[in-house]
Design brief:
The complex is a heterodimer. Chain A is of the alpha/beta class. The termini of chain A are far apart. Chain A has an eight-stranded mixed beta sheet, sandwiched between helices. Chain A is built from 13 helices and twelve strands. By secondary structure, chain B is mostly helical. Chain B has two domains: about 1-90, no CATH class; about 95-315, MetI-like (MetI-like fold, Orthogonal Bundle), CATH 1.10.3720.10. Chain B has 13 helices and two strands; from the N terminus they run H-H-H-H-E-E-H-H-H-H-H-H-H-H-H. In chain B, a hairpin with a 5-residue loop joins strand 1 (about 80) and strand 2. The longest helix of chain B is centred in the N-terminal third of the chain and has 36 residues, at about 90-125. The N and C termini of chain B lie close together (about 10 Å). Classes of the chains: A alpha/beta, B mainly alpha. The interface between A and B is medium-sized, with 32 and 24 residues. Bound molecules: adenosine-5'-triphosphate and magnesium ion. Adenosine-5'-triphosphate binds next to strand 1, strand 2 and helix 2 of chain A.
Chain lengths: ~350, ~325
């Protein structure tokens, strides 16, 4: 690999826009986001439901099967713009270079085929190997993702696995061609808490073993803080904030991120209700009034300055956000936001 | 799978037994009706009645009567029709069986293939003009009454154009498979097509809606994300899971047709099948024939259901454990 290739990010998304034409007007599900994923990096994408996390990653692989959907921008993967490839060329990338794991393992596997069949299909889609060889590799992969008794379980049907085990099968399938990028779209949301932790640990182990990059989509700040090297915070199809995990967790800049951080369980183990800290409903993506900070309708610090739409500004190295509040006052304002929430929830209790 | 098949087979046998008992009770133990008079037919003489009583053991306990009945039907096979002056019943049924089986199986092969092709194409080209065209063709097929379509086909192939393009069409009626595949298939070709048109449309629509539903499932998105081709996604994933519903529908229709529901087609095309036989015997109130036909129909309906159950379990691993 040449010097310049190594320096290049694995995935470089530039000004990605995804819109759906619907009866009630155009929905800008993803509204001009740019980010990169480096080699071996874990990028966390957080945001509330409907913030465009899934749509943005699905559009990268051309997996949005909707004739009313328009995707614009550039998605440079290993020097190629994926958005310019036709379906046949994309198939070469899908599963082989970039693999995906979806939220609900209950429905991600075709119910009439065994675990081994699913994994073999994935392998044989990209490599010329015999059925037998693919089957043997399926067993190894099931071993690698921690499924006990893999020689028997390879012949089990999806309904014969528990949710966590099924997600392991899906992960084994996703990893079967050694992809350089794994996109995991809320891989643990449908699982209960202890299984969640196991699956995350598995992903982390596999990542260090195979060295692939991971894009981890979640709406749980806790998951992001455990797993990722860098974090994107999305709201209404735009980036609200982006930065290295440490900086972003220690000094979150955007009021929306402050709200999301209220959803992290405190370290003493008591569990707080998720997202109780952000009042108001998420933005309606078909709202035509978009030349503003979309979060301003729910933000305690909103002012006339939130219009027109503020751009992303880099404050410290690699740490950006799109908010007009003065940078040096953010810590004080955050403290204020926290105490307001505390007194409000105290009053209502 | 073998255990499942065994269990289903036992269940099927039990159902058959239950049906035979039920049918027997309806014919022989309906209170206030003399079964001898019914079997002997209208205006039977006293001697005939006596003969019937004797031959069916009607003066004996009811379970003996059941046994005698089954012996006449399945062991001695000497059930005779009194209306039809002593004609043996079982040979009639045995002659009718291959006719109906040939008609229905042939038509089923055609309509299933047509429905698969139409359903898959409609799904593959949904959102384009091809999809609604296929759906409309299906609706037209469903709405054509079979006897009308059959008569039109006959009119065209047997008389109007018989001297020109359709000179190769043989006259109506059934030719046994033992006389060669060619003549057999040629005699049945238009009956097959006529019957198939009725079902192909319904099946194509059911398949299409199942497949379009399946195409929105997560596992389809997952399959695409694996990098496999769109046709493979369509056939190995969407079609494969959608077949389950089609097969259960098929079991019902196929059983009913074999059991005599192909009557209209049989009449229009002059085929002496089970439907026609049942119909004629109902007209004459020919009880032994009705009895044989009903039990025969039950047998094939149960058999068809048994096969469909196996097919179902083969298609859907989730039912194998039930
Ligand atoms: N087919 C579609 N037609 C119209 N709008 C759509 C369509 N698919 C998605 N959207 C819109 O795109 C927006 C982003 O959806 P997306 O699924 O990416 O959210 P998300 O961040 O993944 O949320 P979640 O956490 O619930 O998965 C949503 O507001 C949704 O309404
Ligand atoms: Mg999502």
């Amino acid at each position: 690999m040449s010097e310049s290739m190594a320096a290049q990010p694995l995935l470089d998304v530039r000004d990605l826009r995804v819109s759906f034409r619907t009866r009630s007007g155009t929905v800008d599900a993803v509204d001009g986001i740019s980010f990169t994923v480096g080699r071996g990096e874990v990028l966390g994408i957080v945001g509330e439901s409907g913030s465009g996390k899934s749509v943005s990653m699905l559009s990268v692989l051309g997996l949005i099967d909707n004739p009313n959907c328009v995707v614009e921008g550039e998605v440079i993967f290993q020097g190629e713009d994926l958005l310019k490839l036709d379906d046949k060329e994309l198939r070469r990338i899908r599963g082989k270079e970039i693999a995906m794991v979806f939220q609900d393992p209950m429905t991600a596997l075709t119910p009439v085929y065994t675990a081994g069949w699913h994994i073999s299909e994935q392998i044989r889609a990209h490599e010329k190997v015999s059925k037998k060889a693919a089957h043997a590799r399926a067993i190894q992969l099931l071993d690698a993702v921690g499924i006990p008794n893999s020689t028997d379980r390879v012949n089990s049907y999806p309904h014969e696995f528990s949710g966590g085990m099924r997600q392991r099968v899906v992960i084994a399938m996703a990893l079967s061609c050694n992809p350089s990028l794994l996109i995991a779209d809320e891989p643990t949301t449908a699982l209960d808490v202890t299984i969640q932790a196991q699956i995350l640990e598995l992903l982390r182990d596999l990542q260090s073993e195979f060295g692939s990059s991971i894009v981890l989509i979640t709406h749980d700040m806790g998951v992001v803080s455990q797993m990722s090297d860098r974090v994107l915070v999305m709201y209404g199809g735009r980036l609200a904030e982006a930065g290295p995990r440490r900086a972003l967790m220690r000094d979150p800049l955007h009021p929306y991120t402050w709200g999301l951080m209220g959803s992290i369980p405190p370290t003493d183990g008591t569990r707080v209700e998720r997202l109780a800290a952000i009042p108001g409903a998420p933005i309606n993506p078909s709202d035509p009034d978009r030349d503003r900070c979309l979060f301003s309708s729910r933000c305690g610090f909103a002012s006339d300055a939130c219009r027109p739409q503020p751009g992303l500004v880099e404050h410290v190295h690699g740490h950006l956000d799109a908010c007009v509040l003065p940078y040096d006052q953010r810590p004080a304002l955050r403290l204020e936001a926290l105490t307001t929430v505390m007194t409000e929830s105290g009053a209502s209790a | 799978m073998w255990r499942f098949a065994g269990k289903r087979a036992i269940a099927a046998l039990l159902v058959l037994f239950a049906i035979s008992v039920l049918v027997f009770l309806i014919f022989f133990a309906t209170p206030g009706v003399d079964p001898a008079a019914r079997i002997a037919g209208r205006n039977a003489s006293q001697e005939t009645l006596a003969q019937v009583r004797q031959s069916f053991g009607l003066d004996q306990p009811i379970w003996v009567q059941y046994g005698v009945m089954m012996r006449h039907l399945f062991i001695d096979r000497d059930l005779t029709s009194f209306v039809n002056r002593g004609a043996e019943v079982i040979p009639q049924v045995q002659q009718a069986i291959p006719v109906t089986l040939s008609l229905v199986i042939g038509a089923a092969v055609i309509w299933v293939i047509l429905a698969l092709v139409m359903g898959v194409l409609a799904t593959a080209y949904r959102g384009t003009a091809i999809d609604p065209i296929i759906v409309v063709l299906g609706v037209i097929g469903v709405s054509l009454p079979v006897y009308w379509l059959g008569e039109v086909v006959n009119l065209v192939t047997q008389s109007r154009l018989h001297d020109t393009i359709f000179a190769w069409v043989p006259s109506l009626g059934y030719v046994s498979l033992s006389e060669g595949f060619g003549p057999w298939a040629l005699h049945l070709l238009f009956p097959w097509l006529t019957l198939a048109v009725l079902y192909a449309g319904i099946y194509a629509r059911v398949l299409r809606s199942e497949m379009v539903g399946a195409m929105n499932e997560d596992y389809i998105r997952m399959a695409r994300a694996k990098g496999i081709g769109e046709w493979r996604v369509l056939l190995r994933h969407a079609l494969r899971t959608s077949l389950i519903v089609v097969v259960s529908l098929f079991g019902l229709d196929f059983g009913a047709l074999i059991g005599g529901a192909a009557l209209l087609t049989e009449v229009v095309f002059g085929l002496q099948g089970i439907g026609k036989l049942t119909y004629d015997s109902l007209q004459n109130f020919d009880l032994p024939v009705i009895l044989a036909c009903v039990l025969y129909a039950a047998f094939f309906v149960v058999l068809a259901n048994f096969i469909v159950d196996l097919l179902y379990a083969w298609l859907d691993p989730r039912v194998r454990h039930v």
